[in-house]
Each structure stands twice: as C-alpha cells, then as structure tokens.
Amino acid sequence: MNQQSDDWPQWWNEVRRQKFGSETPPRRYEITVPSISAHTWVILDAQTGRLIWGKNEHSNREIASITKTMTAYVTIKICEQLKIDPTQVTVSISEYAIQIGGTSSNLQEGDTLTLLDLLHGLMLPSGNDSAQAIAENFGVYLYFQSKYFQQKIDSIDNENNTIHVNNPAQYFVAEMNSTAQKLGLSNTYFTNPHGLANRLNRSTAYDVSKLCYYAMKLPLFAQIVRTKEYSCTITNLGQTRILKWENTNKLLEQGFSGIKTGVTNDAGPCLASHFITRKHSYILVVLNCNSKEQRWVDSCRLIDWVTDIYEKQ
C-alpha cells in the first residue's frame, strides 16, 4: 500500500520539511505500508500518545480478552485512590466466578489469594475467573459508593446487620464504562470484565491503543504485563496449593514488553503490545488477524516498519 502525502499523519509533516524543505515531497516520493492480515490496526507513540499510523483504526468491533486491560486499569486506579496495597488485600473466589467459561487461571470456589496474585491471574493466563472475581469484589465497594445505594439495597439482614448485593460485577462494569468516557474512548463500551463474546462489548484499535497508553503509565500494570511467568500460593479451607501461570503474550520472548492477547470467534485473534527502542516506545494494536500465530507476525512486521521510518526523524 502506497500513501501519497495527503494521506500521511500529521507527524510526517516534520519529516517532509526536513527531507524536502516543505511539507510537499517530490511526486515520486511515497511511503510503503506493510501488508498484514489484521483487519484493523494502529501504531501509537507510547511517549506522547500521538497517532503514528493505522488502518481502519476507528472501526468498531469486539476485542475479546483485551477487555481485561480496562479491568486491570480500573482495579489499580481504585487501589491508588484508596491507598490499597494489593499485596495485603485478599480476595475470595465465588462459585459463579469459577463457572465463567473460556480461558482460566484454574481457580476454585473458596480460594483465597492476594489481589496482586489475582491481577497476575487476570493478565498472564487471561483468566476469565480472575476477571469475574475482581469485578465482584470491587463491585461491592463501588455499589456502596454509588448514588443508588440507599434506593437499591437488595436486602438487609437485621439480625446480622449485613447487606447483600446482587450481581456486584455490574457496578464494576459501569465503572469501566465511566472510565472509558473519562479517557476519551468514545467508541468503546463494555458489558463484562473479561471479554467473552458479546456483540455489545466493543472498541476500536485506536481506543485500545489509547487505553494501553494510559495503562502503561501505571507502574504496577507495566510490571504485570511484562512478567513472563508467575507463581502464587492459594489457600482454601486450611489447605494450600501453588499455581503457576505463563503469559499468553509470546512476543515477550522477542523484546516486547506487554500488553494483552485476545481471541474469540467473533473478535478473531487480537493483540495489544508495547515495544521500546533506544529512541522511542510504541503501542501497537492488531485486531482480527488471520490466526493466533499471525498476530505475532503482524506485530513484528509493523514494529520493524515503524522503527525504520519513524526513528529517522
């Protein structure tokens, strides 16, 4: 694909001025964009948040487990606001959480683990059970903070002075959508915390890249998504066991530093990734690639291309 000057992103104006003394290059000068399988993709400057290049980057579609990027972002931001130490807070796993289908972190009902462990279970093996557990636990807190608290208390046990909240995950998902609007992700909407197929759970390559741009500014998020392997101790009814998780992002072996994989039948194979060179850092998002293996190839091809042209500025 050859792009004439009228189609080039704004940042290329400076390159044109440096090369040709004006923003209009000689007619024969063109830039060739690599052909990849992804139906929609984008490259973002991870330092400035500036769009470098993309194809159909505003096309709205399902994003599968890349959804968990927002789940982690919201969780970490709440921890920052409340000064919660994820290594000191424990989370219990519900029966419903372990019944969520798809990719799993192999949790069991009644398991207790730290929030830090659970965040790794969310982002490394892409555990839908971890996503649901996070949404349920933080959803209770968000419910108590909501303006609907007084009107929508589901039941009160006067004898034990306890409050039961039905479907607390919905309040967490509402916070995900509120956060998306605050970050300017105008073409993004979430219906669940894990990304399992739902035609209303949608975003764009551009919105995903902006979310990753903000998420990578959180040290804990950046640390988790670049972790290749992680093990933790789980407690359940006085018994303990060790779980080990491997990151589904195979590009960590090739110099990339996060962020999240995703795949469903409707979304297709997807990948949001982060790459650092001596001069720049980049966020790449490829959605609906031809295969799970091809998303690695597509991402490597894009990073080779963009570092070749962008770092000549």
From TrEMBL:
One of its GO terms (biological process) is proteolysis. Residues 32-138, 170-289 form the Peptidase S11 D-alanyl-D-alanine carboxypeptidase A N-terminal domain. InterPro entries: Peptidase_S11_N (IPR001967). One of its GO terms (molecular function) is serine-type D-Ala-D-Ala carboxypeptidase activity. It comes from the Eukaryota. This is Peptidase S11 D-alanyl-D-alanine carboxypeptidase A N-terminal domain-containing protein.
